[in-house]
Amino acid sequence: MKRTRDPNAGQPQAVGDLVSRFLDRSGLAPKVEAASIVTEWTDKVGPQISAVTEALRVSEGTLFVAVATSAWLMELNLMKGELMRRINAGKGDGRIRQLVFVMGNGERGTGNV
């Protein structure tokens, strides 16, 4: 298989463009897009929910979220459909397929809500 030469080879290029092309070619772009929800969590769910939760990680399309209390955990499970719509709004291939709530210890910002 013959590779075609990149017409921009040897020319200065924006790092963001290079990273974007690499992620597309390597197949990692959807995973990076899905993982972006960890930093976007507060904006997507709002301050009330964000105050008692912390997005921990994304693994194989599943977002794990720590919750401060069992009452909130139950409430958020009832809201799962709406939360899924919010967190996947505007996403392409990097959509979250499952949302899992786990109990944390109430210390926001430590990874242990």
Give a verbal description of the structure.
The chain is an alpha+beta fold and 113 residues long. It has one domain (15-103): GMP Synthetase, Chain A, domain 3 (2-Layer Sandwich). 44% of the residues lie in helices and 17% in strands. It has six helices and three strands; from the N terminus they run H-H-H-H-E-E-H-H-E. It has helices at residues 15-26, 29-35, 37-45, 47-50, 70-78, 80-88; strands at 53-59, 62-67, 98-103. A three-stranded mixed sheet has the order 1-2-3. A hairpin with a 2-residue loop joins strand 1 and strand 2 (62-67). The chain is elongated and about 60 Å long.
The total strand number stands at 3
How many separate structural domains? Answer: 1
Relative strand content: 15-25%
- Computed over alpha carbons, the radius of gyration is 18 Å
Reported for the largest beta sheet, the result is:
3 strands, mixed
* CATH structural class: Alpha Beta
At the fourth level of CATH, the homologous superfamily is DnaA, N-terminal domain
The number of helices is 6
User: Globular, elongated, flat, extended or rod-shaped: what is the shape?
Assistant: elongated
Structural class: alpha+beta
Q: State the low-pLDDT regions, or none.
A: none
User: How confident overall, as mean pLDDT?
Assistant: 81
Residues in helices, as a percent range: 40-55%
Spatial separation of the terminal alpha carbons: 51 Å
What is the CATH architecture descriptor?
2-Layer Sandwich
For this structure, the CATH topology is GMP Synthetase, Chain A, domain 3
Biggest β-sheet: strands ordered side by side in the sheet: 1-2-3
SSE series: HHHHEEHHE
